[in-house]
Design a protein that fits this description.
three-stranded antiparallel beta sheet; 186 residues; alpha+beta
Length: 186
């Protein structure tokens, strides 16, 4: 089941696609990150994209095993770096610190992005704290490495983007909707 509260790379404002404002057109990597919640099941499938200039990578969550809302928007690596810029590198932080990287409102976005960053070796579990992260790895080397991937040229949307509303239990809202449907609290 894939539930989203935003649906299209085309609908994403240019500022979420990086400083160049260009629509990502190279798929550099598709992967799966395991969810981080203590009761979470399944994983998050994501893509790493870039534009023709290959100056900045971006992340896109493409599916969620086990359900739950998320935003299918392209999040620039620079936006992730900006979220963490003022935070002391050696201090633990909660996933919600990453929420500002998204235009979408889903409360799952930040946690799913944290899972992706952990899978990429850019974050690690903070010692002696539950559900917090610390910055790890060499971010500049990761960026250089991922941008050097040959990738796949995309002529339209990334693979797995096109979904028919009738194939989903909950259809994604249109751009005209002010308040997308939300999952009921348990």
């Amino acid at each position: 089941m894939n539930q989203t509260d935003t649906t299209s790379i085309v609908d994403v404002p240019a500022e979420t696609t990086g400083t160049t404002g260009l629509r990502p057109c190279w798929l550099l990597k598709s992967a799966k990150a395991m969810k981080l919640g203590k009761h979470a099941e399944g994983g998050i499938h994501y893509q790493i994209l870039t534009d023709n200039q290959r100056q900045a990578p971006s992340f896109k969550i493409v599916s969620n095993e086990g359900g739950g809302y998320f935003s299918k928007e392209v999040v620039a690596f620079g936006s992730v770096e900006a979220c963490l810029a003022a935070h002391p590198q050696d201090q633990p932080f909660p996933s919600k610190l990453l929420q500002m990287a998204f235009a979408g409102r889903s409360s799952n976005n930040a946690g799913f992005l944290a899972a992706i960053l952990r899978a990429e070796g850019l974050l690690a579990l903070a010692p002696d704290t539950e559900g917090r992260h610390v910055i790890s790895g060499d971010w500049a080397a990761w960026k250089t490495s991922v941008l050097a991937e040959p990738g796949q040229l995309l002529e339209s949307e990334p693979v797995g983007k096109e979904e028919k509303a009738e194939d989903k239990e909950v259809s994604a809202p249109s751009a005209d909707e002010k308040d997308p449907p939300r999952r009921a609290k348990k």
